[in-house]
Design a protein that fits this description.
The complex is a heterodimer of chains A (269) and B (272).
Chain A: E1 8-18, E2 24-35, E3 40-44, H1 51-59, E4 66-71, E5 74-75, E6 83-86, H2 98-108, H3 113-126, H4 142-154, E7 160-164, H5 172-188, E8 192-197, H6 200-206, E9 209-213, E10 221-226, H7 242-268
Parallel strand pairs in A: 3-8, 3-9, 6-7, 7-8
Antiparallel strand pairs in A: 1-2, 1-4, 4-5, 9-10
Chain B: H1 2-29, H2 44-49, H3 52-65, H4 69-99, H5 101-116, H6 123-130, H7 134-158, H8 162-170, H9 175-193, H10 195-212, H11 218-227, H12 231-259
Classes of the chains: A alpha/beta (269), B mainly alpha (272).
């Protein structure tokens, strides 16, 4: 891993927000995080620890106060064109049908319309939404909308996929289905994934590596765990294996203090 | 189906209410039916309030002789022109100001002042500027429609979900594409939502403009009738205007259904 150029590297990133009344809030301090090509990395941490901030820096949506982002060895300026971003909240354009949402990115990149349509239809089929292309987002369930969003991002074949708690709003069964589907799609065509979640079980069952972030403000990575569970995995079944339980115990011990700290801080407010 | 039965009963009551009001109107204004209660002369009630049968007869004469059509046509053209010009101007200005904070900050007090001004008062001035023909009525309608569309577009652009915007950016949309594929559709949904209001006000602008000075249009017909104390024609004119406004509103509803298919309507959302 050390030899290869990382697909995505955050080097010494600090993000300080300046509010209009002049007060400062440092969400992330001096964080270094590298994702190798084809590697699935999850970042876990208590609520309000700046996980999404980290992802926005990686996407180029947010400029860090200090440090830099490298994409395949090149310093990032502006938006990260190699990355696809799956948002936590609804991000589909409500005035476009499912199919039109999937073709949107191709359209923005001047792909020939016929080709864009056939690519989008293939991806809708791959995420299990064949025949739903003509529906508007409000006519689809939450899980279906997530799948459209997944197809919308993956149809562009991004080298790096950034995911911000994409499944947190789904019920547990739908969630397991989506996670398995994600793993299946990912192993068919391995891209680098940076996955943000507050759910440790989700992080372990999906990833090659789990990074634990400290409680905010001034979050930074405080632990890193290689997940040596065999693939292919079934996210529901793998939770029952002894190795999973063991890893969960290890990482939880590292996280517990931070979760309590974060909880105590929230009680103060 | 209990729902449709209730609806039918409701329609029946609505029809009964209508008939009741007309009968009351007829009975109270007929010179012979009831002894005069309030007025000393049995013909006075009819003079002030018209007589329903004569009003209907007047409408019938207008339409059977075709004398009302040129007036209706003029009013319709004025309404449509005011609506189209007002919407285009409002859309353009709304997008510009919403996306340009400097222009918005600069013009904000003037927009507020213009919006608070009772703009119907401008009608005589427009008459002087644009003559007594169609143009002055369109101008009045435009001032009414413009602000509705403008504020809705402004709001629509401001309320674009930041996530949808960030997502479009990540998918590779440039500034022009964001405008075309995110800002304008979002703003248009607000414009369509105010379609009933803006078409209604375009109509008001046309009729009030005609009423205050013109040589054609339904407003002009009413004005003429008032000038000769022909109350039945005044009521007939109001009746035609109301029916016409309802027709316009219905056309707007049809257009809305076609244009806003992507928006959930309460009770019609289909989840799977």
């Amino acid at each position: 891993m050390a030899a290869a150029v990382p697909a995505l590297a955050l080097e010494g990133v600090t993000v300080t927000f300046l509010s209009p009344d002049g007060s400062r809030y440092t969400a992330i301090r001096d964080t270094t995080l590298r994702v190798a090509p084809g590697e699935f990395v999850s970042v876990v941490g208590p609520t309000g620890c700046g996980k999404s901030t980290l992802l926005n820096v990686a996407a180029g949506l947010l400029e860090p106060s200090a440090g830099r982002t490298d994409v395949f060895g090149k310093a990032l300026a502006g938006l990260n064109r190699a990355a696809g971003y799956l948002f936590q909240t609804e991000a589909l354009m409500p005035w476009r049908t499912a199919l039109q949402n999937v073709t949107a990115g191709l359209e923005f990149r001047d792909t020939e319309p016929g080709r864009a349509k056939s690519l989008a239809e293939a991806w809708l089929q791959r995420v299990g939404l064949k025949g739903f292309g003509g529906r508007y987002p409000h006519q689809l369930s939450g899980g279906m909308r997530k799948r459209v969003a997944l197809a919308q991002t993956l149809v562009l074949d991004p080298q790096v996929i950034l995911m911000d708690e994409p499944f947190s709003a789904l019920d547990i069964q739908t969630r397991h289905l989506m996670e398995n589907q994600l793993l299946e799609l990912w192993s068919a065509n391995r891209k680098s994934v940076l996955f943000i979640t507050h759910d440790l079980e989700e992080a372990i069952s999906l990833s090659d590596r789990v990074v634990v972030l400290s409680a905010g403000p001034e979050s930074r990575p405080i632990g890193e765990f290689a997940i040596d569970l065999p693939r292919p995995r079934d996210v529901a079944e793998i939770r029952l294996t002894p190795r999973f339980v063991e890893l969960h115990g290890q990482i939880w011990r590292a996280m517990k203090d931070e979760v309590l700290k974060s909880y105590a801080r929230q009680q103060e407010h | 189906m209990p729902a449709s039965k209730n609806t039918r009963l409701l329609r029946l009551w609505q029809a009964a209410l209508f008939v009741g009001v007309v009968v009351l109107w007829y009975a109270a204004t007929s010179p012979t039916l009831l002894p005069p209660i309030y007025f000393d002369d049995p013909n006075k009630a009819a003079f002030f309030f018209g007589e329903p049968l004569k009003v209907i007869e007047r409408v019938w004469i207008w339409f059977s002789s075709g004398s009302i059509y040129p007036h209706l046509w003029v009013t319709l053209i004025e309404t449509l022109l005011a609506f189209v010009v007002g919407t285009v101007l409002g859309l353009g200005m709304g997008l510009w100001l919403a996306l340009s904070p400097v222009a918005s900050a600069l013009l904000d007090p003037y927009i507020k002042a213009l919006n608070s001004m009772p703009r119907v008062i401008l009608a005589p001035i427009f008459g002087v500027w644009f003559g007594l023909d169609i143009a002055s009525k369109v101008a009045l309608g435009v001032t009414l429609v413009f602000f509705i569309v403008f504020f809705n577009v402004y709001q629509g652009v401001r309320e674009v979900s930041p996530t949808v915007l960030a997502n479009a950016r990540m998918l590779g949309a440039g500034e022009r594409q964001l405008l075309r594929h995110v800002y304008v559709p979002s703003a248009m949904s607000w414009v369509f939502a105010s379609l009933h209001n803006s078409v209604g006000l375009a109509f008001v602008g046309a009729v009030v403009g005609e009423y205050l000075g013109s040589s054609r249009g339904v407003g002009y017909v009413i004005l003429q009738a008032e000038g000769t104390f022909d109350i039945n024609s005044v009521f007939a004119g109001i009746l035609v205007l109301t029916a016409f406004a309802l027709l316009l509103d219905w056309a707007v509803t049809l257009a809305e259904r076609r244009l806003l298919v992507w928006q959930p309507r309460t009770g019609e959302t289909e989840k799977l």
